[in-house]
Amino acid sequence: MYYLEVEGEKNLSGSVYINGAKNAALPIIALSILAKNDLKIQNLPDVADIHTLIKLLVNLGSDANFKGHTLDINTQNINSTKATYDIVRKMRASILVLGPLLARFKQCAVSLPGGCAIGARPIDLHLNALEKMGADIEIKEGYVVATAPNGLKGADIIFDKITVTGTENIVMAAALAKGKTKIINAAKEPEVVQICEILRDSGVEISGIGTSEIEIVGTDGECLEMPQISVIPDRIEAGTYLCVGAITGSVISVHNTNPKHLKAVLDKLGDMGVNFEISEDIIKVLPPKILSPCDIITTEFPGFPTDMQAQFMALACVADGVSTIDERLFENRFMHASELSRMGADIKLNGHLATITGGELKAADVMATDLRASSALVLAALVASGRSKIHRIYHLDRGYENLEGKLSNLGANIKRLSEQC
Known about the structure:
31% of the residues lie in helices and 25% in strands. It is α/β, with parallel strands linked by helices and 421 residues long. Helix 10 runs parallel beside helix 12. The chain is elongated and about 65 Å long. The protein starts with a strand and ends with a strand.
């Protein structure tokens, strides 16, 4: 077990380079189940969740070699369709293998998912959609057992609630189904768009990419010849480093970004007084001397992302005034508030609404409770007076590659140390 030790109130400067998006890479790795060729996936982030999903596919019989942000994978020799609890419990995104496995092999058993506790996030929407496509589904001993002896069939799927992983799962399943599938109320996140674009480039007839209505004409069980893939930049990692510049009052250039994916984040930082110089794939942060407060409502893309809510709460803790955050997507996603309060933050919670009065933060021992909460604690520690210790950073390692190294290169005094037994 490790923790981060951070000395606050340091002036930072320089450039930071953003990795590929974890939330795009995971469904792309699952998508490889539908490939009939050796597949090369580039610009993968070297983080724990990626290793977990690769291990899952290897356990199913795939050949995989992950080195230097590139994955060479061949899924043609998959000989098992059971995604076991030991792996799936570590990461909710493992449920993404359900659609591809069922579409290709007409049967599978996938353990009910685990992962960080930021809300229930039930998979009912996935299962109901697959049943409409002709699957028989049972829950047995903690596993989703799905069969479709005659293969999946196209159907009209109306999601009652926008679901990113649900949209990805059904898009992948529909790619090998028989006939046309229409998904209504589909997620529009950039990660969903990339999956659709890969399927289009693999010969699948697909329309409505980037909209709330997607139509896919399946191949009736024929696997796909997939092109080489490069994962899109991680908009959440990029947004986190933009917040590093804003909270520390530092001029930082964030490279390998897609500014179009960050519009909601940039707009909200602009409301707080932050300016930017933006080129094709570089965003330079020009922070104000004093941060203004802001009001945030989390929602689906292109709205403000829930995965940036915790980082903005850290910003609000040092803003000049009162900010509000309305968390509309997950019911348990304010767990970092109590840890920020240990550092002197003035945060009042009322259900899904947080009210934050800005002030000064002081160093403390704090504990990460989920992936994005851990990055918020790092942000707070960077500006707090004194030396903070952030424990349980295995949450951080699920989604941020070499965060302490990147921050050190910007001038931060941050160390990864081993917990004493």
